[in-house]
């Protein structure tokens, strides 16, 4: 009898430990900050990438954990009853059953769930391989039970799917909450939203259209150009040669200030065209900004992708206004 009692005691302790593991893992899965996991995955952590893949549909993972936890608790209760009966008779079986409920409630549920709640990221990354391996083994069972659960939920009018985790949307939601709670003031929140939405903008969305830009002849003098800039209140003008449809470049106020101060106002503006790049109007705004930084220019001429006609210009100030709002000056 003694060897069997020893084996049952070991099995009981193992099942109690497994119950604790399942409980902590379930709580960690439900409460983990996926933003932090995404950051770890982006830094090259392969284990975290696997975890994020599992968390895309947490219902299946939770179902697998619940099945394991319930089965484990049933085994623990049965083993405890057998131990009690073998040691103390029928009364011992009843006592061990009650003892198991108390022990499982604390060591198998309450205590490990507290660990999983407050250490979710560390817990899941530490046991990432075990969680992934267990989820794969239990996949047929968890898929079947999750499918039945979703059908039952649907019949009761509940949701049966979860929106895909979107880090950008999460940041926007957190920004809204922080603004309402006065952690961020309205202007700070607005700047964060504008920066995030800048990635959705195209060159056409941030450019100044050609029809709103004054145009001058390449034969104009610097003095003439300066007067037009003052009259139109514009610091960047399109320059054409011969026909107004033949735009050859852009002249910027910053490039004619020095020659004006040096008394070179009668010189042709064609000698002072600013360096610029050429982009298509359907290019991503952030790609245009990166291209401008790479080429160390502050002006980009925007073209129609089909006709190649000039549609407008983008200057660094346009990007600043996209983030900070319109400048009045």
UniProtKB/TrEMBL annotation:
Keywords: CBS domain, Membrane, Repeat, Transmembrane, Transmembrane helix. It comes from the Archaea. PROSITE patterns: CBS. CDD domains: CBS_pair_CorC_HlyC_assoc. InterPro entries: CBS_dom, CBS_dom_sf, CNNM, Ion_transp-like_CBS. It is a multi-pass membrane protein. SMART domains: CBS (SM00116). Pfam families: CBS, CNNM. GO terms for cellular component: plasma membrane. The chain crosses the membrane at residues 82-107. Residues 207-267 form the CBS domain. It is found in: Membrane. Its main location: membrane. This is CBS domain-containing protein.
